[in-house]
Amino acid sequence: MGLSVPRPAIIAHGVGARGDLPLPLPFFVWALGIALAVSFVALVVLWPEPKLRRLAEGRPLARSPTWLSSTLGALGFGIFALSLTAGWIGENIVVRNILPVTLYVTVWVGGAFAAGLIGDAWAAVNPFRPIASLVDGWHGSRSPTRRGPDWGLWPATVGIVIFLFYELSHPTGSEPRTLAVLLTTHLVGVTVAAATWGREWVLSNEPFTAVFRLIGAMGPVFGDGQRLRLRPPLAGLAGMPVRPGTAALLLTVIGGTSFDGFSESSIGRDIFADLGGWTFSAAEFVGLLLSILVVSALYGYGVWWTARVTELDRNTAMAAFAPSLVPIAFGYTVAHYFQVFVDNIQAFVFRLADPFGWGWNIGGMADNVIWQIDPDVTAWIQVAAMLVGHVGAVVVAHDIAVDRFPAQVATRSQLAMVFVMIAYSALGLWLLLTA
To answer: Alpha-carbon distance 100 to 354, whole Å?
Structure first.
C-alpha cells in the first residue's frame, strides 16, 4: 500500500507472506473452481427466477435518532480535520503521524470492509458532506437552478486512479506532507465543485463516496430516507444504480488491489527491485494501469460472450452485469488487506494518543502493543474471502441474467462469466501465495 515500515507502525501491503496458505496453491485453485462451478449448476436448478430485487426491500429497523447521525458526522469531520492538520504541522514521519494510517487504512480499507459487511457506513461519517452542504447552502441561495454535468462515475474513476498512484507508486506517497498536499487539493476540488454544481453533484461523484456507496449496496443495512432497514447480503445489488463508468470504477479498484499484491510478489520484487525514485514510480504506475487493463480484459471477455448470446450491445451488457463486480472488489479487499487492517486499525487508535508525533501519550495509549492474529487464521480468512466474493458474484450475475433473459439464454450467457470468476480467483490466490 505504499507503506513500508516495521510493526507497530503501518505495514506494507495486506497480502500474506509466501507460504501462509495452509495447503498448496493448486488445491485451493481446484477447490475454488469446483465450488464456483457447483454454485453455478445449483443456481441454474434452484434459482430459475430472480429473487434479489424482491429481497432488497428488506424490513424496517428502529428509527435512527437524530443525535446519532449528528454525532457520527461530527466524528468523521473531526478525524478528517485532525489528520489533515497533523499532515501539515506534525512530524513528517510515517510511523509517528496519524495521517497515513487514517487515509490508507482507516478510510480506504476500513470504509470498504464496513460497506461490504454492514452497509454504506461512510455516508454517516463522510467529512465532505458537511463541507459540501455548507458551501452549497451559501452559493445555492444565489443560484438555485445550478446543475452539474452528468459525467457518470468517470470523475470518481479518475480520482481513484490518482489515489492509487499515491498509494502504490508515488515515491513519497506515504509521507504526511505529501498526503497533506493531496488531501488539501482534493478538499479544494470538493469546495469548488460544491460551489459550482451543488452538494448533490459532489456526493454523487466524490471518489471515496462513490466507491463505498457501490460496495455498500451489498451490505445488509441501508436507509430509506426515514429509517434503517435490514435485507439479506447481496440483495441490494439488484437495484444498484448503474451509471456510465460504474464498471470502470469497480475494475479500477480490483486492478489496484491486484497490483498491490503483484508488486509484493517475488516476480514483482524482481521487476522493480533495481529501480528508484521517479523511475520506480513511473514503472509501478505503468504496472498499475496494466493490472487494471488485465482485469478489465477478463471482464470484457465475459461481457462479449454475454452480448453475443443475448444479442445485447456490449455497452448495455457491461452496465447490466456491473453489480456482479462488487462482491469481487470486496472479496479481493478483504483477502489482501485483512492482516494490514487488523494490525493498523490498532495503530490508528494508538496514534490518537500522539497524532502529531510530538511525544504525547494521551491516556497512555501510545505505549500499547499491537495484538496479532495467528497466520493460519489469517490465511483461512483470506481464502474464505476469495470464495465468498466470487460465489457472490456468480449469484448476482445469475440473478441479473434470469431477470433479463429466458432461462436457457440466461444459462448460456453466464458460461463465460463463470470462467472469468475462476480466472479472477486463481489470480487472487496466486498473489496471496507468491507475496
So the answer is: 14
- Report residue 245 CA to chain centroid gap: 15
Confirm if 166 and 182 have CB atoms less than 8 A apart: yes
Contacts of 54 (CB under 8 A, 6+ apart): none
Alpha carbon distance 96, 265 (integer Å): 28
- Give the global pTM: 0.91
Phi and psi at residue 229, to the nearest 5°: -130, 160
* Strands of the sheet with 228-230, listed across from one edge: 59-60, 228-230, 221-223
Q: Round to whole Å and give the CA distance between 293 and 273.
A: 23
pLDDT tens, position by position, 243-275: 999 999 999 999 999 999 888 877 888 888 777
Gyration radius of the chain over CA positions? 22
Residue 60 backbone dihedrals phi, psi, to 5 degrees: -70, 145
The values of phi and psi at residue 256, to 5°, are -65, -45
